[in-house]
Amino acid sequence: MTLGDIIRNYRENNNITLGEFANACSLSKGYISMLENNINPRNNKPISPTLPSMAKVASGMGIDLDTLLKMLDKKQPVQLISDKLESSSPLVVDYQKPDQERYYQRISEYTARFLDLYNQLSSTNKGKVVSYTKGLLHTQQMEDALLPNAANDRNATEEEKKHVDNIMKNDKEWM
């Protein structure tokens, strides 16, 4: 089923109006109508909702995002990145490619919340997030690279540990 079919069935089964459902999702009535009809009126093509929007729909239905995603037809396009991003085009999942399906299944509600917050930032602050994230990743990679070089003291006795410490502190060993 498409997202529109799921929304329409939910509304009919729960006997609620389009407006009531829109309020429950914190989305506009017009957007919910577009989702139900599965057509973007600007280009007459199937609508491709973002993950944050889908998370809001799921919340309005009282289910989590993962449950909603599992209900979708494999041909339902989903934008992983919002149109609001100036520097990149939307990434749309094509379920015809199995590697994308696995990636898509790993997308969590946490990721959707992160993208929703990110999309609310100004361009300057988006740049700061990217810069900070790159720095954080670099630090993590450096820490990971150092871990295998650390001394291994598994099953070492106190006497063996003391001996190793003495070697490390002896300047003659380092000249």
From TrEMBL:
One of its GO terms (molecular function) is DNA binding. Residues 7-68 form the HTH cro/C1-type domain. It comes from the Bacteria. Gene3D superfamilies: lambda repressor-like DNA-binding domains (1.10.260.40). Transmembrane segments: none annotated. This is XRE family transcriptional regulator.
